[in-house]
Write a structure and sequence with these properties.
Blueprint: H1 2-24, H2 30-48, H3 50-60, H4 68-74, H5 86-97, H6 101-104, E1 105-108, E2 114-115, E3 119-126, E4 131-137, H7 141-162, H8 171-185, H9 188-202, E5 208-209, E6 222-226, E7 231-232, H10 243-261, E8 263-265, E9 273-275, E10 281-283, E11 289-291, H11 294-308, H12 312-323, E12 324-325, H13 329-333, H14 335-352, H15 359-372, E13 376-377, H16 379-398, H17 404-412, H18 421-434, H19 436-445, E14 468-472, E15 475-478, E16 483-486, H20 501-512, H21 522-534, E17 540-544, H22 547-562, E18 566-570, H23 579-582, E19 590-591, E20 596-597, H24 607-611, E21 613-616, H25 624-629, E22 634-639, H26 651-664, E23 668-671, H27 684-688, E24 694-698, E25 708-712, H28 714-717, H29 726-732, H30 744-759, H31 762-784, E26 790-794, E27 797-801, H32 810-815, H33 819-831, E28 834-835, E29 842-843, H34 850-869
Parallel strand pairs: 5-10, 16-28, 18-21, 18-22, 22-23, 23-24
Antiparallel strand pairs: 1-3, 2-3, 3-4, 4-6, 7-9, 8-11, 9-10, 12-13, 14-15, 15-16, 17-25, 19-20, 24-25, 26-27, 27-29
Helix pairs in contact: 1-2, 1-7, 2-3, 2-4, 3-4, 7-8, 10-16, 10-17, 11-12, 12-14, 14-15, 20-30, 21-30, 31-34, 33-34
Length: 875
C-alpha cells in the first residue's frame, strides 16, 4: 500500500511539474523554453531522489541527445546538489569514529566543497598537517535509494508484464543491476577498495592521477583521501591546454583503465573529473566501476579488429558470441537475415560515419536489431555502454570535433598492426624505393610458401619483411644491398655473431667429412659431455632437433616417471609449438589474475591437453598453493626461469617452487632454450644456484643449426634408455628419438661455440655491460621525447614496451603493450640502418661494437621523433 501511495504521489508530482512548465513556457522562444525546461527538470529530479539525480547527471553529459540549454541546467546535479547541514554531518562523523571530530582532524570545513546525489565532500586537515578530502554519505540516503528503486521496480514490473514489445529487454534484471551499482555507491568501504586498486594501476601514468586513500580513516559511510587542488570538470576551459589535446588525454585515460587494466571508472562525468592548470587529469568518485574479464577484453578487441578490416560477417559472429545473451531460436533460425541487419549497421558506422563516431548511436542501432530477434546485450556490456555514454558526452563537451574512433583504435583493436593511412603510405613508398627485391620476394613467396616464423607470423604478419643475402658479425645485408645492424640474433642462436670463424671453420671440416646422422660419432659424445659438465645438477643428456622437441621429450619422461598426465606451467611462458607448450602462452589468457585458467594457444590443440594443464602465475607465491592441492595429479612443472618476454627472473618464487617440487616429488623442468648459454655459461640456474631436475636447451647449443637437448638427473633421463628387455621397456620406458638428432654437422657447430664461450668468459661480462648501457640510453631517449616506455634488460636480452606502467605479471605486460607502436618502431628503425624484430625480444651478440650501440641509439632517437610527429602517442 505504501509503495502504491508513493507511486501515485510520483505521478501527481510529475503532472504538477509538467503543467507548471506548460504555463511558464507560453509565449517563450525555443531557446527560452529549453532553458525553462532544464530548470524544471533540474528541480524535479532534485526533489525526486538520488536515483533520478543520477539519471540527470548522465543526461547532462549528452548535449548531442538533449538540447544544450537543458544539459547546461542539469550539470548542476554533478556537484551542486543541496547538502546536509553541519549538525547532521557532525552526527555521522561522531557515529562512525566513536570519538570527537577534533581527535581525528585538526581542521574541518563543514561547508562542502562539492555535493552530489549520494555523498558530499569536505576539506579537512589531519594532525599530521596533511590536507584531505572527506567524503560523507548523506543522511538517510540508503532509505531514499530504497524508496526510489521500489517505485521504479513497480513501473518496470508492470511494463514487463503488460507490454509484450519490451519483454526482450528483461527490464527487471536490468533494474537489479542498477540497484547493485547504486547501493555500492553508498558504501564507502567498497569505493575505497576500488579507488585504491585504480590508484595502483595508474600511479605511474604520465597525466592521469587518482588521489591516495587514507584507508585507516575509511568506514562504510566515510571515505578519506588526499586533497588535490584542481579545476572542476565543469570549468574545463580554465585549463591551459588545447581542448583537442585535453580531450584526447581524457579518452586515453578512461580507455587505459577499461581495455588495459579491466577496471575502470564507470561514471566519468564532469563532477568526477578534475584538471590541473597544465592538463593533468584527476579522477575521483569510484562508486560505480566497470570490470572486464580477460575474455571480455579479448572479445572487444577481436570484434573491433574485424570491423577495421571490414570483415562484417566475422564481426557479427564475434559480437554475438561475446556480448549477446538470451540468444533465441528466432535469432539462429534467421541467422542470415540477422547477420545482414547487423552488417548494415556496421557499414553505416564504420564506413559512412566513422569521422563522427558515436559508440552510443552505434549500440543504440544494435539494440533495435537485437530486439527484432528477441536478444539483448550481456549484463556487463550494459555497464560498458553507460560508461561510453557518459565519457563520450564529456569528451564532446571539451572538443566537439574530437575523432573518437581514431583515438580509440589504440585500444579497441589493440591486436591490430594498424597504422593510419598517411603513415602507411609513407612506408609503402619508402620500402618500394629501398627494398623492391624484398617486396618482390614477399609477393612471390605467397604463391608457394607459408613461413610462420618471419613472413606469416602468427597474429602479426610482417608487412615489410626482410630477405637476407648475407650475414656477417653483427650485420645483415638484404637482397637489395641494404645493410642493417641486427638485433634479432636469429631469435637467439648467434651469440658470437653471424659467420664466426670458430664455427665456420669447424663446420667446413665436418661437411667435408660427410654429414652423419642416425649413427654414432665423436662430436655427438663430446657435445653431450660439454653440456652435462656445464650444469652442476646434470648427469646425462638426450640430443634432439629443437627446443620444442626437447620440451616434448622432457614432459614424456616425467609422465612415465610419475605415471600422471597433467602438467603445471606458468602463464605466458612459451615452450615451443606443441599443444602443451602453447597452452596459456602468447596473447591469450583467461581466468583471474592471481589464479589463471588454462586456454589453448592455437586452433587445433587437443581439448584434453588444455584441461590437463594447471596454470601458475610466475612470481606469484600464493599460486603455488594450487600446486600442492593438485600434486597427486601432476607429472611435472615446467617454467622459464627467466621468461624471455619479461627478461628478468624471480629468485624467491623459483626457490619456493624448487622446495615445493622436492617436497612433493614432482619433477621440475627449466626451459632454458633461450637463456641457456646466453645469460651465462650454462644458464640462469648457474647464476641463481637453483637446480631443476631437467633442463631443456636449444638455439645456442647448435651453433646456428637446429638442435635441442634435455639434460638432467639420470633417473629421469634413463627412462629413455633401453633395458634390453622389450617387454619391460614397453611397460616402463619412454621412447624419444629423431632421425637427425645428434647429427654430426649440428654437434660440430654446437661444440665449437660452447668451447669458444667456455674459453672466453669475458664475453658474458661485456654483453652484460652493453645491455645495461643500451637500456639506460633507451630510457633516457624515451624520457626526452616524453614517451611512456619500459625496458627489461638482462645479459644480452632486452624486451621493450611503450607503457607507463612497471609490471610484474606476464598478462599485465601484454595488456599494457602498445602493439601498433612496437610494430611501427621496427619499420622506423630500418630507415636508420637497424633491424629490430617486430614484437619480439631483442638480443645483442659478441660482435656488436660500441659504435653499433651508438648507431642503434641514434636510430631509436630519430624513430621516436618521427613517431611522435606521426601521432603514435598521446602526449
Amino acid at each position: 500500500m505504501l509503495i502504491a501511495l508513493r507511486f501515485l504521489f510520483l505521478v501527481l508530482y510529475s503532472i504538477f511539474y509538467w503543467l507548471k512548465y506548460i504555463f511558464a513556457s507560453m509565449n517563450k522562444s525555443k531557446k527560452e523554453q529549453n532553458i525553462l525546461r532544464g530548470q524544471y527538470i533540474y528541480q524535479y529530479l532534485l526533489k525526486s531522489g538520488p536515483v533520478y539525480i543520477k539519471m540527470g547527471q548522465v543526461l547532462a553529459t549528452r548535449p548531442d541527445i538533449i538540447p544544450s540549454e537543458i544539459a547546461s541546467e542539469l550539470r548542476k546535479l554533478q556537484d551542486d546538489v543541496p547538502h546536509m547541514d553541519e549538525n547532521d554531518t557532525r552526527r555521522i562523523l561522531k557515529q562512525e569514529y566513536s570519538q570527537p571530530i577534533e581527535d581525528i582532524f585538526s581542521e574541518f570545513s563543514f561547508k562542502p566543497v562539492a555535493s552530489a546525489s549520494i555523498a558530499q565532500v569536505h576539506a579537512a586537515v589531519l594532525h599530521t598537517g596533511q590536507k584531505v578530502a572527506v567524503k560523507v554519505v548523506k543522511k538517510n540516503i540508503r532509505k531514499q535509494l530504497e524508496k526510489n528503486l521500489k517505485i521504479i521496480q513497480v513501473l518496470v514490473s508492470t511494463a514487463h508484464s503488460l507490454i509484450p514489445s519490451i519483454k526482450h529487454l528483461n527490464l527487471p534484471v536490468r533494474l537489479q543491476e542498477l540497484k547493485i551499482l547504486l547501493v555500492a555507491q553508498a558504501d564507502m568501504t567498497q569505493e575505497a577498495q576500488k579507488q585504491s586498486a585504480i590508484y595502483t594501476n595508474l600511479k605511474s601514468h604520465p597525466y592521469a592521477y587518482v588521489p591516495t586513500v587514507i584507508k585507516e580513516l575509511c568506514t562504510s559511510n566515510i571515505l578519506v583521501m588526499e586533497f588535490v587542488e584542481a579545476i572542476p570538470g565543469k570549468n574545463v576551459r580554465q585549463v591551459d591546454m588545447p581542448p583537442s589535446k585535453l580531450a584526447r588525454r581524457l579518452q586515453h585515460s578512461i580507455y587505459t583503465m577499461l581495455y588495459l587494466d579491466g577496471l575502470c571508472h564507470g561514471d566519468p562525468h564532469p563532477g568526477n573529473i578534475f584538471f590541473t592548470k597544465d592538463g593533468k587529469i584527476i579522477i575521483v568518485d569510484f562508486g560505480i566501476t566497470v570490470e572486464l574479464s580477460e575474455d571480455e577484453k579479448w572479445g572487444l578487441s577481436s570484434f573491433y579488429f574485424a570491423c577495421t578490416r571490414r570483415e562484417w560477417d566475422i564481426a557479427v559472429e564475434r559480437f554475438t558470441k561475446h556480448f549477446v545473451t538470451n540468444k533465441t531460436n528466432k535469432l539462429f533460425d534467421n541467422w542470415v537475415e540477422y547477420q545482414k541487419d547487423l552488417e548494415l549497421i556496421l557499414l553505416k558506422h564504420f564506413d559512412e560515419s566513422n569521422n563522427r563516431w558515436s559508440t552510443v548511436s552505434f549500440f543504440r542501432d544494435f539494440v533495435v536489431v537485437l530486439k527484432k530477434y528477441g536478444a539483448q546485450y550481456t549484463t556487463n556490456f550494459t555497464k560498458v555502454e553507460l560508461l561510453f555514454l557518459t565519457c563520450e558526452g564529456f569528451l564532446t563537451q571539451i572538443d566537439p570535433d574530437i575523432d573518437l574512433w581514431e583515438n580509440a583504435r589504440q585500444f579497441n583493436d589493440r591486436y591490430s598492426p594498424y597504422m593510419n593511412q598517411g603513415v602507411k603510405k609513407t612506408f609503402d613508398e619508402y620500402f618500394f624505393q629501398t627494398s623492391p627485391s624484398s617486396l618482390e620476394l614477399r609477393d612471390r613467396a605467397k604463391n608457394s610458401l607459408v613461413a610462420p616464423t618471419h613472413l606469416d607470423r602468427y597474429f602479426f604478419p610482417s608487412t615489410y619483411p626482410i630477405f637476407v643475402k648475407k650475414a656477417v658479425g653483427s650485420k645483415i645485408e638484404d637482397v637489395d644491398g641494404n645493410v642493417y645492424i641486427d638485433l634479432s640474433c636469429g631469435y637467439g642462436p648467434h651469440i658470437l655473431g653471424y659467420g664466426h670463424p670458430a664455427i665456420t671453420t669447424a663446420l667446413g671440416e665436418a661437411v667435408v667429412m660427410g654429414g652423419v646422422n642416425a649413427l654414432g660419432h665423436l662430436s655427438e659424445v663430446q657435445l653431450a659431455e660439454t653440456i652435462v659438465e656445464a650444469f652442476p645438477g646434470a648427469e646425462k643428456a638426450i640430443l634432439s632437433n629443437s627446443g620444442s622437441e626437447a620440451i616434448l621429450q622432457a614432459i614424456r619422461l616425467c609422465r612415465a616417471y610419475r605415471q600422471r598426465d597433467r602438467i603445471a606451467k606458468c602463464e605466458g611462458h612459451y615452450h615451443g609449438f606443441s599443444d602443451q607448450g602453447m597452452v596459456s602462452s602468447w596473447f591469450r589468457v583467461t581466468g583471474s589474475k592471481d589464479f589463471p585458467d588454462p586456454i589453448s594457444g592455437t586452433r587445433g590443440t587437443h581439448t584434453s591437453i588444455v584441461q590437463n594443464t594447471l596454470i601458475l602465475q610466475y612470481g606469484h607465491l600464493p599460486s603455488l598453493a594450487r600446486l600442492r592441492e593438485q600434486a597427486n595429479e601432476l607429472a611435472c612443472v615446467v617454467c622459464e626461469p627467466m621468461p624471455s618476454a619479461t627478461a628478468e627472473w624471480d629468485r624467491p618464487f623459483l626457490t619456493a617452487l624448487r622446495e615445493l617440487c622436492t617436497d612433493l616429488d614432482i619433477p621440475l623442468i627449466f626451459d632454458e632454450v633461450v637463456s641457456g648459454f646466453r645469460v651465462a655459461y650454462g644458464g640462469i640456474q648457474n647464476l641463481i644456484d637453483i637446480t631443476p631436475d631437467l633442463t631443456c636447451l636449444g638455439k645456442i647449443i647448435g651453433g646456428g643449426l637446429p638442435c635441442g637437448c634435455v639434460v638432467g638427473k639420470h633417473e629421469l633421463i634413463d627412462i629413455a634408455k633401453s633395458s634390453e628387455d622389450p617387454f619391460y621397456d614397453y611397460e616402463h620406458k619412454a621412447f624419444v628419438g629423431g632421425t637427425l638428432s645428434g647429427n654430426s654437422l649440428t654437434c660440430t657447430a654446437g661444440l665449437s661455440v660452447l668451447t669458444y664461450l667456455k674459453e672466453h668468459p669475458d664475453i658474458y661480462i661485456t654483453l652484460q655491460k652493453q645491455t645495461d648501457w643500451l637500456a639506460q640510453q633507451f630510457c633516457q631517449i624515451a624520457h626526452n621525447h616524453a614517451i611512456p616506455f619500459q625496458i627489461k634488460a638482462n645479459r644480452s636480452i632486452f624486451s621493450l614496451t611503450f607503457s607507463y606502467k612497471k609490471v610484474k605479471l606476464y598478462r599485465e605486460k601484454w595488456a599494457g603493450s602498445n602493439f601498433k607502436a612496437s610494430i611501427a618502431l621496427a619499420y622506423y628503425m630500418r630507415k636508420y640502418g637497424v633491424y629490430m624484430p617486430e614484437l619480439h625480444f631483442c638480443m645483442l651478440n659478441a660482435s656488436h661494437t660500441q659504435q653499433d650501440l651508438e648507431t642503434i641509439c641514434q636510430a631509436f632517437d630519430n624513430s621516436l621523433k618521427e613517431m611522435v610527429q606521426d601521432g603514435f602517442f598521446v602526449s
